[in-house]
Amino acid sequence: MLDTVVQGLSGLGAGTSYLFTSGGPNVIMLLIAATLLYLGVKKEVEPLLLVPIGFGCMLVNIPLSDLMEPGGLLRILYDMGISNEVFPLLIFVGIGAMIDFGSLLENPKMLLFGAAGQFGIFLTLLLALALGFPALEAVSIAVIGACDGPTAIYVASQYAPQLLAPISVAAYSYMALVPIIQPPIMRALTTPAERVIKMAPIKRSVSQQTKLLFPIVVTLVTGLLAPKGLPLMGTIMLGNFMRECGVVARLTKASENEIANIVTLFLGLAIGGTMEGHAFLKPQTLAIFGMGFIAICTDTIAGVLFGKLVCKLTGGKVNPLIGAAGISAFPMAARVVQAQGQLYDKKNHLLMHAAGVNTGGQIGSVVAAAVMLSVLKGMGLI
Amino acid sequence: MDNAKWTFGLTMMIVGMGGTFLTLWILSLVMDLLKKIFPLAPKAATQDKK
């Protein structure tokens, strides 16, 4: 009888005992979970993601909780939508339903800024290879430079699932840090005269037919050129088509609200579930965070330099600051450009131009990932 | 970094970046074409000016 009671009591204290004996990494991860929750709740840094990620991280690092073992809650969520890439794609339907591509359609050439803003991806790929990461891991790390959480998760879950946790956390963290990372780079690369360039106001010139056909045409063109990225582009354009066609308002509303919210919760929890201390706390995690930072800085540098080139070519009609918005962090990057422009001239309104570039960056990041996957397929690596 | 990795990295950089620019440039041309085929009706443009 006494033995049974003691055995029962040992079961109660097993978790605590594990924590004090071999649970060092778990303790560190519990502190990281607390930091993520603090950033999400108190600082409101990407709270919709950092709160579930932080809580998932906390759950999985409580010893012997078995939440990521087969049959555990977090494992079920992971298998349900991360390992088969469904969650990021469902989020893309919601993103497509939320975005108005009108400002991009007013000036389609802004799409080229969206290409320049992806340079960080390719430079980071070289860097990751130089640091010794295998090809597919290097590609997955490089996609942090797309500044696009769902794309990073989509690629990493397929080709480097063992790196999914640091890649996704880095991608979302740096997206949230865009207002801190970008302004010093923008100031360093532009002259005071360039920063106060006023751009001509955008005239409304896009018909509803054009807005309706845009998602179909983009899907066809990118699908034909880079078929491996079709799930990404197809879902984002499905959401946008539903928004523009106007006859499925219920589906559009569900995509941008209920579905996006539920999937974001599940996605965040499942990603948090991959942050188990012994697997997460490795030197390569730090390397991934470092490379992610370089990727986003390089995106901004390339975007602003491209802006300077366009400024020269157009005889000073384009403010180079808008180049910084050629990344996927929408609408944050466009707001950063507007804020920087107004810092030097309160009457300078760059928001609409920057929004066009920013939506171009959204498409650009997906196209860059699609092109990379298709090139990998062409090389026979996937 | 060995030769094979350099070759892979540089190929990805040139073809990847080039492919991204090319795809987006084609898309921008198609978008311009769409705007020409389906211009904004004069009525809508006038309403906008008002």
Helical residue percent band of chain B: over 70%
Radius of gyration of chain A, in angstroms, nearest whole number: 22 Å
Q: Helicity of chain A, in percent? A: over 70%
The global form of chain B is: rod-shaped
Structural class of chain A: mainly alpha
Please tell me what the overall shape of chain A is.
globular
Uncertain runs of chain B: none
Overall average pLDDT of chain A: 92
Strand content of chain B: under 5%
Distance between the termini of chain B: 63 Å
The proportion of strand residues of chain A reads under 5%
Number of helices of chain B: 2
Total strand count of chain A, please?
Answer: 0
Radius of gyration of chain B: 21 Å
Strand elements of chain B, count: 0
Structural class of chain B: mainly alpha
Largest sheet features of chain B: none
Q: Mind explaining what this structure looks like?
A:
The complex is a heterodimer of chains A (382) and B (50). With 382 residues, chain A is mainly α. Chain A is built from 20 helices and no strands. Chain A has helices spanning 2-22, 24-41, 47-61, 73-81, 86-98, 102-106, 111-116, 119-130, 135-142, 149-159, 164-176, 178-189, 192-195, 208-225, 230-245, 249-273, 277-280, 283-313, 332-344, 351-379. The longest helix of chain A is centred in the C-terminal third of the chain and has 31 residues, at 283-313. The termini of chain A are far apart. Chain B is mainly α and 50 residues long. In chain B, 28% of the residues are buried. The model of chain B has no long low-confidence stretch (mean pLDDT 86). Chains A and B meet through helix 7, helix 8, helix 9, helix 14 and helix 20 of A and helix 1 and helix 2 of B.
